[in-house]
Structures are given as C-alpha cells and as structure tokens.
TrEMBL record:
Record lineage: Bacteria, Pseudomonadati, Pseudomonadota, Gammaproteobacteria, Cellvibrionales
Keywords: 4Fe-4S, Iron, Iron-sulfur, Lyase, Magnesium, Metal-binding, Queuosine biosynthesis, S-adenosyl-L-methionine
Name of the protein in question: 7-carboxy-7-deazaguanine synthase
Gene responsible for this protein: queE
Record-annotated Radical SAM core domain positions: 21-212
EC nos: 4.3.99.3
Function description: Catalyzes the complex heterocyclic radical-mediated conversion of 6-carboxy-5,6,7,8-tetrahydropterin (CPH4) to 7-carboxy-7-deazaguanine (CDG), a step common to the biosynthetic pathways of all 7-deazapurine-containing compounds.
Subunit structure: Homodimer.
Length: 216
C-alpha cells in the first residue's frame, strides 16, 4: 500500500518567530496550497508548486535537524487530508508540535498533543467570512488564537470576538500581531494596554531578523 504523502513547499530550520515557542530553534514544514487569499499574505509562494514527499521522508528530514520543536505551516496545512497523519507521526516521534492554521478548516481531527495556532481572519484581511466558528469549542489551554491586525477597526473587531467567545479562557494564549507594514506596532501596543484585555502583543521575530525572506 502506498505510504501517505503530502505536497511540501519547503522544510527548513530556523527560530520560531511568534506565539508561545518564540525564539526556540524549530523545524518548519511548509505544506503547499491554501484556499484563502488574505491580502497581506506573506507566503503566497506556497500556493502552488511543491514536491510530493512521503511521510517517512518528511520525518527523516525533520529529524536530521536535531531540533525539539516542529511547526507545520503553509499555505493552509489542513487543506491536505494527510496533514492529520503527519501531525500524529511527528508527535509519536517525540517532537513538540505546533500547527499554524487559518481558522477556516475543521481542527477537530488534529492530534490532541499538537498546539494549534488558530489565525482568526479579521475584516481587513478580506477573508473574515471564512472563519469557521464551530472550531471555537474545540480549543483548549494547549492551543493559541491569533489575530493579525491591519487597522483600528480590526483591533476593535478582535476585542469584540475575544469577549464574545471568551477566548482568553478557552485558549492558552490570545495573540495580537500587527500586519507587517500596515499598522504602526506602537499604536497596536498602546491599544492593547488601553483595552485591559489579557491578550499578548507580539512582533514577528523572524521579520525583524531576516525581513520577508522565505526560509526563515
Ligand atoms: S490563510 Fe495564510 S497562507 Fe492562506 S492566504 Fe491567508 S495568510 Fe496566506
């Protein structure tokens, strides 16, 4: 029987640039393809192309970097059905695994050992209508919710959603991140302080260190 395979854009070793594991050496597995088209997307090069690789090959390359943390990202990783067995296999191999997902696809089948980073799309992303709100009851303290904020209206919308869905109680972390080059990070930091919400402001470390270069 053929082994499960996935379309892969790149596998690389870098520092985790955001969320709970920020700064830790991490292997990134970037899956090809995404059904969304957020206007600020910084990984559009993963929409097409890629190379089919089977699960054993992927696991062997990930292990070769000798990092403890692995982040499965995209594109939208869950758009490929074999992402689910990949995540389980990475957990079985002993890695600390996180998944970056758009929030538009069902997360319920993801292995419970995986920390899911659910990127809820704001109105200014252009893809807000794709948010799958049925995902919210599946969130646990092991998971994280992220909002990429493009302007003050996005910020106000995100604050409303945090309260409406009690996200700070459901998820381990709620992250507010400025859309790169669109909103002044200092303005966002001040809005977060003024809001009084227990959300975490973050800057994308990899962009400060390496700009928008793929492979970091
Ligand atoms: S979900 Fe992510 S990969 Fe897909 S278009 Fe939006 S930012 Fe890009």
């Amino acid at each position: 029987m053929a082994k499960p395979n996935l379309k892969i854009t790149e596998i690389f070793h870098s520092l985790q640039g955001e969320a709970r594991a920020i700064g830790l050496p991490t292997v990134f597995v970037r899956l090809t393809g995404c059904p969304l088209r957020c206007h600020y997307c910084d990984s559009a090069y993963a929409f097409h192309g890629g190379e089919r690789r089977d699960l054993d090959e992927i696991l062997a390359e990930v292990a070769s970097y000798k990092a403890r943390n692995v982040c499965v990202t995209g594109g939208e990783p869950l758009a490929q059905a074999n992402c689910i067995p990949l995540l389980a296999a990475l957990c079985d191999a002993g890695f600390e695994v996180s998944l970056e997902t758009s929030g538009a696809l069902d997360i319920s089948a993801v292995d419970a050992r995986v920390s899911r980073v659910l990127d809820l799309k704001t109105p200014a992303s252009g893809e807000c209508h794709r948010n799958l709100w049925d995902n919210i009851p599946h969130l646990t303290a092991h998971d994280q919710v992220k909002f990429v904020i493009c302007d003050k209206d996005d910020f106000d919308w995100a604050c409303f959603k945090v309260s409406e869905h009690d996200l700070c109680a459901r998820a381990g972390d709620v992250l507010f991140s400025p859309s790169f080059g669109q909103v002044n990070p200092t303005d966002l930091a001040n809005w977060v302080i003024e809001s009084g919400l227990p959300v975490r402001f973050q800057l994308q470390l990899h962009k400060l260190l390496w700009g928008d270069e793929p492979g970091h």
